[in-house]
Amino acid sequence: MKKIDTERINEADWAEYIVEVINSKLIELFPNRKLCAEKEKSLMYAYEINEYGTDGNHEARTMGFKTDILIFENLINNRWKPRVVIETKIRGVTTHDAITYSKKAASHKAVHPYIRYGIFVGEIEHIPKRLMRHGENFDFMISWAKGKPTPKELDDFTNVIRREVEASIQMDHIYGRQEIGKESKKYTLLHRPLVLATRDDTNSGTDSRVLVGPLP
User: Fold this and answer.
1) Which end of the chain is more exposed for a tag (fewer CB within 10 A), N or C?
2) What residues in the chain have per-residue pLDDT under 50?
3) Cα angle at 209 between 193 and 27, to 5 degrees?
4) Which domains can be identified in the chain, with CATH numbers?
């Protein structure tokens, strides 16, 4: 695994380190799926129709952004499918960062309705309230106090990655093409719970509890 100097770490090196951490965990979490993470992989954020033909065909173009970290699944015939996007920051997040990244998340989700999208901040004690306030399009937010995690931070991070990949796969089945001759499953409940964790929690913030800690 890449060695990082936590005293002089930059965002590019930290993202590369996180990619290695994620790839080591994906093998353990999903041994039967070909999942991997890459840094700066491009993902489409726009699908524009230039004109329509009277025969029903149309002329279109796509545009893409590079993502900080993309977890994707390799499929057959040299195809792949995005699962989870993670934007990374070091030592802080401004209001402008939060708004910009949240808009980017919305754009990517408009083209890929099954992807999960989060932001990961290193060398910061807690998630800034400005990020919670302006990051409405994020599915998760994570912070580590330093460049390398404590055991609890790594456990929480691993649980989030597992649940977000699972959520993407489930959403993909809901939004994806229906198999011929197979009836689609009908749902009667969709609930998005709130899960929180502090550095003092003895249990992971991603266990079965909906809200961690006492209500204010």
Assistant:
1) C
2) 205-213
3) 85
4) 11-174 (3.40.1350.10)
